[in-house]
Amino acid sequence: MLTIGQITYANCTPIFHELMKDFPADRYRMVRGVPAVLNGMLRQGEIDLCPSSSIEYGRRSDRYYLLPDLSISAIGPVKSVFLFSRVPIEELAGQTIGLTSESETSVVLLRILLQKYHGVTARFEPTNGLDLDRFAACLLIGDTALKTALAKPDGFCFDLGELWHAATGFPFVFALWIVRREVAERQYGELKLLLADLLAAKQRAEGAYGEIAESSQESTWMDRKELVDYWQTISYDLTPAHQQGVCRFFRDAHDLGILPVAPELRFVT
Predict the structure, then answer these.
(1) What is the 3-state secondary structure (H, E, C) of 125-156?
(2) 5-41, pLDDT tens digit by residue?
(3) Whole-model pTM?
(4) Do 112 and 63 fall within a single domain?
(5) Are residues 139 and 6 in the same domain?
């Protein structure tokens, strides 16, 4: 049985909803968590695979393979990764920015956007939420970012997916479906079955967003129209353009000294 990390954010709800609804429950074991926690569990061998932060693959590509045709991405605005700021981006130079502890990829993306594409060098400290009294800006992701944006706080609200697309022209891949190398080699048959199930779940979910929204836990704080609109914003594919985008991200991270090398993408075939 494969152990799968399940990100507990709204952007993952459709594909996991369809996977658990339509396919044998005894084939997979789900472990729920936020991206940073699941990244650690993947590294430690506590889960077999996960839609994990793309920077996790960038840092340890020798340990992993990727599932093809699957990601959590944005081609422009992502609507759930925001930099909330008191001032315009150019005025953040030398300021302190609060960073969520739930994400690793978005933190690296913010550093790249600020330093490489806006010429801004800032300081960073951890934060548990929006605190613009303490920080000049705060980076929030996932459901916390969605809820904060819906509340329409004062100041500026920068969508990191939109900033990346404007700077590079590429989609931004926030998460890749990452598999531990030994699992790919030892449980190849099970993995191929899972890949088929995931691709089918992705296809079914795209035609059922309204139905999924009505029964989702997110319906307690987002209405049906907002949820459907959000899910239609997310790209769950991994096309050649997506792959170019993630490779550009790795090269930019390497240029800033965040990654020792910009790795190639290696897939389960």
Answers:
(1) EECCCCCCCCCCEEEEEHHHHHHHHHCCCCCE
(2) 998 889 999 999 999 887 776 789 999 998 889 999 9
(3) 0.94
(4) no
(5) no
How far is CA 144 from each of CA 38, 62, 81, rounded to the nearest angstrom? 18, 32, 9
Last residue of a domain, one of 116, 143, 168: 168
Same-domain check for residues 43 and 86: no
Alpha helices in the chain (DSSP H): 13-22, 35-43, 54-59, 105-112, 142-150, 160-168, 181-186, 188-206, 209-215, 224-233, 240-255
Q: Could you tell me the residue range of the domain that residue 220 belongs to?
A: 2-73+172-256
State the total domains in the chain. 2
Packing angle of the helix pair 160-168, 240-255 (nearest 10 deg): 90
Burial class (CB in 10 A: 0-12, 13-18, 19+), 215: exposed
